[in-house]
Design a protein that fits this description.
Layout (H helix, E strand, L loop, with lengths): L4 E5 L6 E3 L2 E3 L6 E9 L5 E3 L2 E3 L2 E8 L5 E3 L2 E3 L4 E6 L13 E3 L2 E3 L4 E5 L7 E3 L2 E4 L11 E7 L7 E3 L2 E4 L8 E3 L5
Parallel strand pairs: 1-4, 2-5, 3-6, 4-7, 5-8, 6-9, 7-10, 8-11, 9-12, 10-13, 11-14, 12-15, 13-16, 14-17, 15-18, 16-19
C-alpha cells in the first residue's frame, strides 16, 4: 500500500497542527502518502517537520483560509506543499490561504503547488531548494519551485527564495518561477 498518512485532520474548523515530526526514513516509500493532510477550515499548520519517503509533505484538500508557517519538509517523492483540488467532493477552494516561512528541500517535482482556486492567498518568505541528481529519474524531470494550475486574483507571492544548485545533470530542468 502506497497511501500511508502521518496525520490526517479531516473535520472541524480552526484546527491547530503544531510541533509534530513525521519521518518515514526507515519505512517503505509511500508514493501517494501524505505527512500531514488537512481538510478543516481556517487550519493552522505550524512548526512541523516532515521527512523522507512520503509522496507529499503537507496537503490541504481544497479548504479556504489555511495557514502553513514555519514547517520544514525534505525528501518527499512529489511535492512539499500541495493545495489539492478534489472536484468530486467540491473541495477546490484554497482561497485566502497563507504559506509563510516554510522550508522545502529536495521535493521531487515541486516545492509548493496550488491545484485549486487560490484567490487572495499569500506565499511569503519561503525557502525552496533542489539539488539535481537527488532522484534516480531526475534526467527526465522538470522541477518547479512554486506552481499554480490556475490564475489567481489578488494573490501575493513575494520574498521567496528558490534555488537549484549542485552538479549539472543532462535532461534535468528547473523552473524557478510560478507556472500555470
Amino acid at each position: 500500500d502506497n497511501n500511508g498518512m502521518g496525520l490526517s485532520i479531516t473535520h472541524g474548523d480552526g484546527a491547530v497542527i503544531q510541533n509534530n515530526i513525521v519521518d518515514n526514513s526507515a519505512g517503505t516509500p509511500q508514493q501517494n502518502g501524505i505527512g500531514i493532510e488537512v481538510i478543516a477550515r481556517q487550519a493552522k499548520v505550524e512548526h512541523n517537520r516532515i521527512a523522507n519517503g512520503l509522496g507529499y509533505g503537507i496537503v490541504v484538500q481544497g479548504i479556504p483560509g489555511s495557514t502553513l508557517a514555519y514547517n520544514t519538509i525534505s525528501g518527499v517523492l512529489a511535492e512539499g506543499i500541495r493545495f489539492a483540488c478534489d472536484a468530486g467532493r467540491n473541495r477546490c477552494d484554497d482561497s485566502g490561504s497563507t504559506v509563510d516561512s516554510n522550508t522545502v528541500s529536495n521535493a521531487r517535482n515541486a516545492g509548493i503547488d496550488f491545484d485549486g482556486a487560490w484567490t487572495g492567498s499569500k506565499v511569503l518568505s519561503n525557502t525552496i531548494s533542489r539539488t539535481p541528481g537527488t532522484w534516480p529519474d531526475d534526467g527526465r524531470l522538470v522541477f518547479t519551485g512554486i506552481k499554480a494550475s490556475r490564475p489567481a486574483t489578488g494573490s501575493d507571492i513575494r520574498a521567496n527564495k528558490i534555488t537549484v544548485s549542485g552538479p549539472g545533470l543532462a535532461g534535468f530542468h528547473a523552473d524557478e518561477t510560478v507556472s500555470g
